[in-house]
Amino acid sequence: MRFTERTSNIRPYYCCYCGVRHATNQQLRRHLSVHTGSNLYSCECCSSSFKNQHQLKQHLLESHSEGAWFTCRICQKKFLYRYHLKAHLHCHEDMRAYVCAECPKRFYTATALKHHQRIHSDYNQFICGLCNRTFKNKSSVKTHFRKCCTLLEFDFG
Description:
A hairpin with a 6-residue loop joins strand 5 and strand 6. The radius of gyration is 19 Å and the shape is flat. It is built from six helices and ten strands. By secondary structure, the chain is α+β, with helices and mostly antiparallel strands. Residues 1-7 have low confidence and may be disordered. It has a domain at 1-36 and 125-157.
């Protein structure tokens, strides 16, 4: 069942602040901390706390030298996660193995291809929590949401 949730395009849980849709309630709760300012991850070495594990891991590496960076042998760029390094190495080999079925564009990662494929789809998975306008990608709804908030403040403020 969990596998189906992750691969499904159905995202019934959406953020009332910015309209970003999520597949599970847990993903939505984690996302809401971005808007509410709550920090869910605390450093055991100091009093710092963070919104996500990625920020905590980066803090531990940079401030307390805990853990290990994954370093590119070609350009010395550092990564928090091995899979980010692995994806990065494709750019040195110019290995764009992921090809769009709709157009000739090619991509280094499956994730980049998946994001690109939204432009060919009629499905808009992101929705503005204020005016219910829908968008194909997260950056578009975020930009729109800022404008929408500004208009509301101007109208009511």
